[in-house]
Amino acid sequence: MPVSILCYHSVTNGWDDPVSVETADFERQCAVLARSTTVVPLRGVIDRLAAGYSVPAGTTVLTFDDGFADYVEHAVPIMERYGLTATMYVVAGSLEPGGIAVDWIRGLDPADAPPLMTPEQIRELHDRGWEIGSHTMRHADMPTLSEAECLADFKESKELLEDLLEAPVTSLAYPFGHHAPHVRRAAELAGYRIALALPEGPEEAGPYSVPRTGIYRGNPEWKFRVKNSRWYAHVRTSSLYQKVAGRRT
Ligand SMILES: [Zn+2]
């Protein structure tokens, strides 16, 4: 697939964690994207592929995982200035009364976690044309669950989000990008058209294991340019990458 799918988490200032990109860095990255690629909504890519068309080279899709509220405060206004769009993957358990503890960021006490978006904010984004997808119910490491448990989670998160948005939710992002054959089967059975991964090594790509490239804090611009080139996801999933990478960045 000649499309580069980038994966962000938080865009804010002063959260010193790999998942959080500073607003000034994000702004520079958006400027590079607006200049050098065509950023399209994920749904557009899915529809083109389903209709038998290929996706033009130089196409980029932006995605965000976890549903942090800084998306509304920082990322969306910056993307709007550059005419870009993105899909946000929400942890659907956060929609339930009482919300959910952000217990999936390594080294972070959930009590210190930045807030997640409220259901009202998610609904409002959707109404303004910003795509929303499922990031499961509780951000579990799905390969550790049974196929039946995965299926129940994928269905429940889809239904909760569809009830909130009053629209179909057709894409899923696996927590931590982790998946396995039984997880992919469950994603398909639950009715998603596509499921996104985040490969750290060799991994076969398919509609239920679509590779993304994670963009992390402090990635200097040269590295960002490399990461956004369309062969990067392929290189990362090749065995060659394992040999040359040495260690994960
Ligand atoms: Zn996540």
TrEMBL record:
Key words of the record: Signal
Main location: secreted
Alphabetized PROSITE patterns for the sequence: NODB
InterPro entries membership: Glyco_hydro/deAcase_b/a-brl, NODB_dom, Polysacch_Deacetylase
Annotated compartments: Secreted
PANTHER family tied to this protein: POLY-BETA-1,6-N-ACETYL-D-GLUCOSAMINE N-DEACETYLASE, PTHR34216
Originating species: Pseudonocardia thermophila
Protein name: Polysaccharide deacetylase
A biological process term (GO) from this entry: carbohydrate metabolic process
The keyword 4Fe-4S belongs to this UniProt entry's keyword annotation: no
Recorded superkingdom: Bacteria
Cellular component, GO annotation: extracellular region
Ranges for domain NodB homology: 58-249
Molecular function terms from GO: hydrolase activity, acting on carbon-nitrogen (but not peptide) bonds
